[in-house]
Write a structure and sequence with these properties.
about 30% strand; about 30% helix; binds D-MYO-inositol-1-phosphate; single chain; seven-stranded mixed sheet; 6 helices; binds calcium ion; D-Maltodextrin-Binding Protein, domain 2; 14 strands
């Protein structure tokens, strides 16, 4: 299938999932706790993941499917693999904070190939295909050319790992002193897209999982940005790692 056709089919599915987030009866939804501090899952996380799995595998039946809400240990080394977060920003969703996205990454032979991140609240569809640039809705996007001193720094608190909290806030304080200000959205996928779209200059988080960053990292790279672990190595796609994403200048 041509990349353009494939991307169109994936965005159709993702948009449908966004509609479910927008029209969710959140008050009636059951909320369960998962391992770690303040780590929740709602019926909507599970339901959207089921829809993504069914519809995405209809589009590419040969693909492996890795989703946040099920313990799937599929190998992504060969062929296509979808790496999916049905709702990135679940706590925001529970609180009706309007800052949650659907994130679908697609890898090919263990490398990032396509990324789709959709914010239904703002109707913003971020997309990228490897080697073909990044888009927001129908227009191309590019990272900003501002230095850190004139930049906004986004960060995630790695909330499910209490042992990382102190270091996260120390780093945020250091960046706060060097930049204009800091922000914490509650969605790592959206933060990566915000740097990609030139709305912020840097994002970091001490521990994330592949479904949080595969799609957003490709979108950022295709928008001209740079993403590594905090140590400067490549992001791992089969297991979690830290993330440092910049416009390449900050
Ligand atoms: C979380 C969000 C949050 C980040 C956490 C993630 P979830 O994902 O991306 O911004 O700080 O580390 O786990 O649990 O809402 O899908
Ligand atoms: Ca997530
Ligand atoms: Ca999630």
């Amino acid at each position: 299938m041509e990349p353009k056709e494939l991307l169109g089919k994936i965005t159709d599915v993702v948009r449908e999932c966004g509609e479910i987030i927008l029209h969710a009866e959140r008050g009636k939804s059951r909320i369960d706790e998962k391992a770690g501090h303040a780590n929740f899952v709602t019926e909507y996380d599970k339901r959207i993941q089921q829809i993504l799995r069914k519809s995405l595998l209809q589009i590419l039946p040969e693909a492996v499917f890795v989703g946040e809400e099920e313990d799937i240990h599929a190998s992504i080394a060969k062929g296509y693999a979808f790496i999916v977060d049905p709702i990135d920003g679940t706590t925001n969703f529970i609180k009706d904070y309007h800052m949650s996205v659907v994130s679908v990454g697609l890898t090919l032979d263990g490398e990032k190939y396509m990324g789709v991140v959709y914010n239904p609240y703002s109707d913003e569809m971020f997309t990228a295909v490897r080697g073909q640039g990044a888009c927001l809705n129908d227009g191309p996007i590019h990272v900003s050319s501002q230095p850190l001193s004139n930049g906004l720094v986004l960060f995630g608190t790695a909330p499910y790992y209490e042992e990382l909290a102190k270091r996260s806030f120390e780093m945020a304080y250091d960046y706060f002193k060097k930049a204009l200000d800091v922000r914490r959205s509650g969605s790592a996928a959206l933060d990566l897209c915000s740097v990609a779209a030139g709305r912020a200059e840097l994002f970091f988080e001490l521990s994330l999982s592949p479904w949080d960053y595969v799609a957003g990292a490709l979108i950022l790279e295709e928008a001209g940005g740079k993403v590594t672990t905090l140590e400067g190595g490549p992001l791992t796609l089969h297991a979690g790692c830290s993330v440092l994403a910049t416009n390449g200048i900050a």
